[in-house]
Amino acid sequence: xxxxxxxxxxxxxxxxxxxxxxxxxxxxxxxxxxxxxxxxxxxxxxxxxxxxxxxxxxxxxxxxxxxxxxxxxxxxxxxxxxxxxxxxxxxxxxxxxxxxxxxxxxxxxxxxxxxxxxxxxxxxxxxxxxxxxxxxxxxxxxxxxxxxxxxxxxxxxxxxxxxxxxxxxxxx
Length: 172
Description:
By secondary structure, this protein is mainly alpha-helical. The protein has helices at 15-19, 24-39, 43-57, 60-73, 77-86, 94-108, 115-122, 128-151, 157-161, 165-171.
């Protein structure tokens, strides 16, 4: 499962939980940070931002997990497939498209973000705090997804089971 030798008995644990058995305090603190970021955002927006960030950095574990939340709570298969393929053509509100574009930029290269990029979000009614939470959501995903990638943690089967086979293949 992982590139690291995971000590102890982790039966019943998810693959990401197993990866973090070597640093349980980090996992606990990351969880608290993630909850704080998530609490500052609308859940649907958080999940859209997270999906974009996970896809951009190639974190299939996170892509599958957050697509599952979007599928269960907000979108049907066709809409989610459209979002994953090209959110510009998925019938989303312009503010969602703008937020996802911004999240994609932050995930790609945070150093390329400019005042004009933030202004584009302000033009859609986002506050400074809203913009900050988008940035934070992307950056916590970069950390968590990067750890899973670097340890070789593979997505658990239940993540595939929560999606249609087509969506699972698209996001893996």
